[in-house]
Design brief:
alpha/beta; eight-stranded mixed β-sheet; binds S-adenosylmethionine
Length: about 280
């Protein structure tokens, strides 16, 4: 199959990419775990993590589902998942679109992955098929177009950096505001959208989210500058790295409907015999 991804961090040197992924995990894991708990992750459940990254979520899921459960982790690069080489884990290296997984899952989790893919609908259609009826999908994706500087210093530099991020995604055929389109996309594809939550990160300099943004800037500095929106100086301004930043995440909880009318779906879903959903 033709390569459908052109992942921007693909060429980032491994140790530095691992550090960046660990920052992503420390910024977002606790909220993700709360969502996965609320979705009812339990002993014996079958779960899929698409874009498993450095693996903290599949590791955490494995502890929840226990030896009778299943955790599949798929990533273009599985270098950081080498410890997940025993049940309940199965790690698959490659593009999820090529993975051809026949297992049916109770729960699928995707975080910070679809924004990097030019064919997110193809991924979501494939997810719909891998979910058992009533199974649950949790997606956490950013919208960079509404990121803005907070605080008083160097707002112009920070805002130019944010514009550079958006232009970079657009120049690659990707949508910097991907998260905003998620609920309608999911509905159009046949999911039942149960809930959409918005996280607006508003943190002082040195917050975990600010550290993620700074690590991404270090990795993608030339690409940001190539957009013509931001200068070297903008990217290096101490405020850009340390002061308040806002980013915006839409978190969507959706389910694969049972084959009934809309109302019946909700009814059946609530009375599903498994704990997930
Ligand atoms: C920004 S990282 C996020 C990692 C992890 N989901 C997290 O939030 O900690 C995106 C990850 O998705 C993977 N990825 C992107 N597109 C993918 C695809 N089509 N199939 C499998 N993995 C993909 C990348 O290799 C990378 O590890």
């Amino acid at each position: 199959m033709a390569k459908e991804h052109n992942y921007i961090f693909e060429t980032h040197e491994n140790n530095r990419e691992l550090q960046r992924l660990r920052l992503v995990e420390s910024a977002f894991d606790s909220a993700s775990e709360t969502r996965l708990r609320a979705a009812g992750i339990c002993r014996g459940a079958a779960c899929l993590e698409i874009g498993a990254g450095a693996g903290s979520i599949p590791r955490w899921m494995g502890d929840r589902v226990g030896p009778s459960g299943l955790i599949f982790g798929v990533d273009l690069n599985t270098t950081y998942l080498s410890d997940l080489n025993r049940p309940p884990w199965t790690v698959i290296e490659g593009d999820f679109l090529d993975a051809n997984i026949s297992t049916r899952f109770d729960l699928v989790h995707i975080r910070y992955v679809l924004i990097h893919n030019v064919k997110p609908n193809a991924i979501l259609s494939s997810v719909l098929k891998t979910l058992r009826p009533g199974g649950c999908l949790i997606i956490e994706e950013p919208d960079f177009t509404v990121a803005q500087a907070g605080g008083s210093g160097h707002r112009a530099e920070i805002d130019r950096t944010h514009r550079a991020i958006s232009r970079m995604f657009e120049s690659m055929g990707l949508s910097p505001d991907f998260a905003a389109s998620l609920p309608s996309r999911l509905r159009d594809l046949g999911f039942l959208v149960d809930r959409v939550e918005i996280d607006r990160h508003f943190g002082p300099g040195g917050s975990q989210v600010a550290k993620v943004m700074a690590a991404s800037t270090d990795a993608l500095r030339e690409r940001y500058i190539a957009t013509g929106e931001a200068t070297q100086n903008d990217l290096d301004t101490p405020s850009g790295r340390q002061e308040i930043r806002c980013t915006f995440y839409a978190n969507t909880h959706a389910t694969r409907p049972h084959r009934h009318s809309h109302n019946d779906v909700r009814h059946n879903h609530r009375h599903s015999s498994t704990s997930i959903g």
